[in-house]
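Protein takeout, Drosophila hydei. Tokens?
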Amino acid sequence: MESKVFITLLLVGLVIQTLAKPKGKSSKLPGFLKVCYRDSPDLNTCARESFESLEPRLMDGIPELYIPPMEPLRIPEIKMDQDSGAIYLHSVYKNVKISGISKHTLHNLSIVPSQLKFALAITFPTLKLESEYSIKGKIMMMPMLGDGNCEVELTNITMATELFGEEYTKNGAIHLRIKDIEVKYELENVHMQLDNLFNGDKALGQRMNDFLNENWKSLSDEVRPLMIKALVDILRASIDKLFEAFSYDELLPSLKM
Ligand SMILES: *[C@@H]1O[C@H](CO)[C@@H](O)[C@H](O)[C@H]1NC(C)=O
Ligand SMILES: *[C@@H]1O[C@H](CO)[C@@H](O)[C@H](O)[C@H]1NC(C)=O
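Tokens:
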């Protein structure tokens, strides 16, 4: 058996739109939120119903719950630096717009209060990402250089997220904070188009786009850790604020209270 050692440098920098704190002195959960009890035998059914009743509002965002508008989801900036395997890249994506999030299918939503575990599995038939990009580096030994607009279309992407919380006390109330988030995803196809590669050399740019689209599978495995880190950071940004604003008993009260 041969063992390979990869020296991997993965860096993701994200600028996430921070939502203004909702108006009003004390944070109160919005009345439209269906409250679920953590010791109810119907917890998971309730959680699913609660999620489904929020879905129409997700499009425009729910500031009371620190959830940004989801259709489209806008991220001012994502930085990705990778130096591993066949990819050596410095890249910045600005004004990232992700559409297609509202058309999803929820497979699994489960809460295990004894482990403070929240699990969610969801499929998006298509997600379209549009942004300004700036890339410099090498992909599979080929130089890669460009800045302009890019578009990426992902087909049939299934994402499974598991979040583990831990308790701490703040102002006499028990709050949760994120101990760990695990994200996994599978996708069926990727199509991308990067405009203005190689200072606008159309022939070279087209060849690189063709190459990327033909090899998306192995490339997507290479960038997977980076993508997962980006997804985790996006989720963290909202959930941390939600957990900080509302105590555990407010978010998931006990029937015995
Ligand atoms: C749903 O999530 C729970 C908790 O992670 C897991 O035990 C279960 O297998 C999942 N079910 C499906 C259908 O994915
Ligand atoms: C989407 O991908 C999953 C595997 O991740 C597969 O089971 C399913 O059939 C695919 N759906 C479509 C509509 O292609």
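Strands lie at 9-15, 73-84, 87-99, 105-112, 117-139, 142-170, 173-186, 189-194.
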